[in-house]
Amino acid sequence: MPASPLFHWFLPTGGDGRDPGGVTAVQGRTGAAVRRPADIGYLGQVARAAEQAGFASLLTPVGLGCVDPWILSAALTQHTRSIGFLVAFRAGFSSPTLLAQQADAFRRFANGRLRLNVVTGGDPAEQRAYGDRLPHDARYARTDEVMAVLRDLLDGKRVDFAGDHVQLENAQLVDPATEHPVPLYFGGASPAAEAVAARRADVQLLWGETPSGIAERLARLRAGARAEGRTLRYGLRLHIIARDTSEQAWEEADRIFAGFDPEAVRASQARFAAMDSTGQARMAALHGGELTGTARDFIVAPNLWAGIGLVREGAGTALVGSHDEVAARLAEYQALGIEEFVLSGYPHLEEAYRVGEEVVPRVRALVAAETAAAQPESGPEPKPGSGPLQAASESAPESESAAQAAAQEGGRA
């Protein structure tokens, strides 16, 4: 495992504010959650803040409540210099040949600053809004075919493919920019999703569960990948509420919790329960869906708070604590096998600086110290290139078997 994880930041393309809210248009948002409109001026500020803070890339989500991630990311390349873009797209909504052309053009004109987040979708109501009526497992079967074709086309191969969902003849990119490999990120917690990850993903993304829950999932995912003769990288999607002291951080969590509207929580939980996303069900199991007690009643592991999941679909947990405490928890996830983190905080502009300046360096220091402590006191000279992992501003390294990849089940990051 690399000696230091890679860090990414989230773009709030549905609007931003001090409070969490829904990600899709199916779910309403409070005014406090969208006080800052998602225009190019503000999102450009967030992108530059994340770049200056040293994040590797920006996750641009996809869904009814999000602006088109391809167009937005292309626009933001003109407002940034080096940060990458983890562009989410819905598998099966357009031809994989067209997707490959879009991705190839992006990586060519943005000097390789592209990762792809392959989204299957876990909300039948939202899927129907896009005209998709496939049931859960069939959606993942279609995603499997799309990823297979997309990978080969981006690698410069000519593709003939006859699947249940994708049929292509003599598909090939013209002079593809293969000097810029495009990692495929993917997510999903169901057996159907994990089977696709084993075969096709470079990076499998998980939502922030307890360390024991993550360890259990990683063991199963590794076994699936081994059965396919592959190895994957693993990433974790989390919100961060970090302050100079633990008391200050929990005061902020208390403020967010106090602002939750009981009717909005009930409506959100009813909609989440109607989804067929296994990942969403796992998030709901952490908090039970009831707005009761205090914010600290929703602590599910040291510093891991499930309160955000009361109102937000998808990633519903946050690490809450002092900068040192949050860094320690992230380092513990890294020790389990997490090699990449997709982080966010409210508001995303200020928190990009805070997390990048205060938390990320502490994580790197902890991981470096642990790595150094594990090294033998003497031994042969290390081989060239076997030093610490590249800084988070560099592209993700290739896995042992492929270029990296993955996305969240249900598509909301």
TrEMBL record:
Region ranges (Disordered): 370-413
Biased composition (Low complexity): 386-413
InterPro entries: Luciferase-like_dom, Luciferase-like_sf, SsuD_RutA_monooxygenase
Transmembrane segments: none
One GO MF term attached to the UniProt entry: alkanesulfonate monooxygenase activity
GO biological process: alkanesulfonate catabolic process
Pfam families found in the cross-reference section: Bac_luciferase
Flavoprotein is among the record's keywords: yes
Keywords: Flavoprotein, FMN, Monooxygenase, Oxidoreductase
Domain Luciferase-like: 26-339
Protein name: LLM class flavin-dependent oxidoreductase
